[in-house]
Amino acid sequence: ANVGVLISGRGSNMRSLVANATEAYKVVVVASNRPSAEGLVWAREQGIPTFALSPKEVGKQAYEAALDAALREAGAEYLALAGYMRLLSDDFVARWRDRIINIHPSLLPKYKGLDTHARAIAAGDAEAGCSVHIVTEELDGGAVLGQARVPIQSGDTPETLAARVLDEEHRLYPRVLAEWLTR
Ligand code: GRF
């Protein structure tokens, strides 16, 4: 299947999706709401088509219309959010119903939203992790397709924990995306 990947920054999960693509999927476009996103540079170097537009420039509606058109033009059938930090509108989600997935750095349903690692440490949790889930209108709320767990160690900071979880994200996301598309 042809997949479009949406990023807002570094794009390390996007790189892992590209690097680990199998017969199950191909990344046909990388799109960003931040034209300065570091991941776009790498995608262009790989020869992957990119799309970048700031919603602040044109307004959210025009931004999403242009994004939708660019994704369809590139042949994307499914979307994978990878560090995409904007909320997609209900309309956009409806147009891609059950064809968008996201990776979130917590063991959902725990810690939807931001600052997941700091919250897990503050709660005294023994473990943290990441989840791949279907995107619905509810933030970080759709069905969970796969998770990976890591222990929280004494002395962990949000940064050290984030690095340990990120390693698992890079393994989990390509595997779950491929499984989901061949279900
Ligand atoms: C990842 O931890 C992802 O789960 C979260 O933001 C981070 C993005 O990192 N939503 P990257 O851009 O994939 O490197």
Automatic annotation (TrEMBL):
Pathway: Purine metabolism; IMP biosynthesis via de novo pathway; N(2)-formyl-N(1)-(5-phospho-D-ribosyl)glycinamide from N(1)-(5-phospho-D-ribosyl)glycinamide (10-formyl THF route): step 1/1. Belongs to the GART family. The record marks D140 as: Raises pKa of active site His. Gene3D superfamilies: Formyl transferase, N-terminal domain. GO terms for molecular function: phosphoribosylglycinamide formyltransferase activity. N(1)-(5-phospho-beta-D-ribosyl)glycinamide binds at G11, S12, N13. PANTHER family: PHOSPHORIBOSYLGLYCINAMIDE FORMYLTRANSFERASE. This is Phosphoribosylglycinamide formyltransferase. Catalyzes the transfer of a formyl group from 10-formyltetrahydrofolate to 5-phospho-ribosyl-glycinamide (GAR), producing 5-phospho-ribosyl-N-formylglycinamide (FGAR) and tetrahydrofolate.
